[in-house]
Amino acid sequence: MSFTKEAFSTGHSAALDFAQPEPIDMASGKYVKIWQGPQHPGITGNMALELVLDGDTIIDCKTHVGYLHRGFEKLMEHRTYIQNFTVVCRIAVPEPAFNEYLYAAALENLSGIVPPERAQWIRTLNLEMMRLASFLMWIGGMSAAFGLYTVPNWTITYRDYILDIFEEMTGARIYHMYMVPGGVRAPLPDGMAGRLREIMDGAEKLLDTVERVMFNNTVFKMRSKGLGIISPEMIDPYGIVGPNARACGVKRDLRKDEPYLAYEHLDFDAITGTDSDAYDRAYLRLQESRQCIDLIRQCLERMPTDGPFQADMPNVLHWKIPPGQTYVKAECTRGEYGYFMVTDGTEFIRRVNVRGPSYTHAISVMERLAVGVNIADIAGLMVSLHTYPPEIER
Amino acid sequence: MKAMLERLETDFGVYDITERKPAMTTLKIKKDQAERLIRELRDREGFVHLSFITCIDYIEDGIFTLVYMLHNYNRNDTLGIEVDIDRDSAEMTSIHTLWAQAWTYQRELREMYGINFPGSPRLEEDFCLEGWDDIPPMRRDFNTKQYSTDRFGHREGRHSEDPREHMKVTLYPNRGGDE
Lengths: 394, 179
Fold this sequence. Notes:
The complex is a heterodimer.
Chain A: E1 32-36, E2 48-54, E3 57-64, H1 72-76, H2 85-88, H3 96-111, H4 117-145, H5 150-170, H6 192-215, H7 218-224, H8 243-246, H9 254-257, H10 278-302, E4 324-332, E5 335-343, E6 349-355, H11 358-369, H12 378-384, H13 390-393
Antiparallel strand pairs in A: 1-2, 2-3, 4-5, 5-6
Helix pairs in contact in A: 3-4, 4-5, 4-10, 4-12, 5-6, 6-10
Chain B: H1 2-12, E1 15-21, E2 24-28, H2 31-44, E3 49-58, E4 63-72, E5 77-86, H3 102-113, H4 144-152, H5 163-171
């Protein structure tokens, strides 16, 4: 499905027409249908775009998901609260920490448990490290999508350095299962702060180099500027959030607007862009990566170094949570990430719904922006929206 | 917020207004008034953001509860609109004309719960599941384990145990499974 631009030109309050476009006459021989994905270097994970081309211009795009469906939400209804920790971190592979945090926060919210201050700071640090690791991987992907294969080697290296710190901190590189209900599993290891600071110093220099090599590169500039422009009128009707919205000048960031964990004690401001094209979105994420480094340093400087890191908890094997309903959310690298949870007083979740930004960015937004784009730029456009299929399929 | 909720009670007959946590409220509305209420909230009350649409299966009561989670960026308020629909003839008014992503949620709900949204685009297309021939899998009466056993059969060298029982026996062997 694709939407005409005119449909949204009058803004959100106007009656929007989401009528289906006229069917394309494939039998005419004028058009070619090709699939981008599900296995393709330019695809952000296992999903596919069904593209109809007129020459080398895309005239229709349909997103197909389901290649990674593992039924997480259903599985979680049949496992005890604590057992679900092995499930939630797998919902967004490059950013498992946000799932851990939100799952823990939802349970805490429903059961009235308040994690101690030190745990809140450690969680904040963990999330910012996760954000930086994810951005570094994304910058590599974005660069590679436009044929610059040097940058990914550098950024993935630094992501790996951060994963080393995660391993030291949590015992695992990717699926940490570290933020448990009531706090975190362990305090920071001795000497970790110093090692993390060193890596941050290196990462800061790396981002300067990336800016010179990638963002001043003529090929990258010419191909990404003007690509996939999101207009301000699209933001609310399409549910666009996070950097994709901020690149459009919309100053919304859950860390500032509805502070959680220790964010209210940190000095930062939401970063916005102006042009809202693939280049601007990429540059905004580069700036947000720098912001992550700053926030990590602030956390290390301001966080308490002693005190409890885990609240008193009931026996988790027999943990029953009173009937209730909640929706907790956090700002992940792509925007609003949330857990909607319903409990019914038993030892099992009644219903959990994971809300990921890719749900709209990779489907409705992608299908709209792809129309009119040259086939060579579709990978770059897709990466510029920063989508993860697992959070669509759950 | 309070004044708005009082007005909605009078004008739309909303009921069961519950503050779930600070800045998050849920309310219930009759099925035939839901689309009008959601449109009103979007156009006049500033709830311009649709976070998600989801469904809760209350099989014991024979109903599905649809939840529309809306957000007001100016006031940082979240409002959950709950609509109970009959489980056996599950059908709901489509809101695909209000948000561009709504039809995707509706398409997913059609596949996972079997709820019909007349007029919603591409509703019949497979979303995650290709060629699914069983009952919609997110319904409470769909048994994942049974499906798996019937579909894939026994594989040598693979056995499964109830994780909860296993943990009890492994962790507290001397207490008969109790703490």
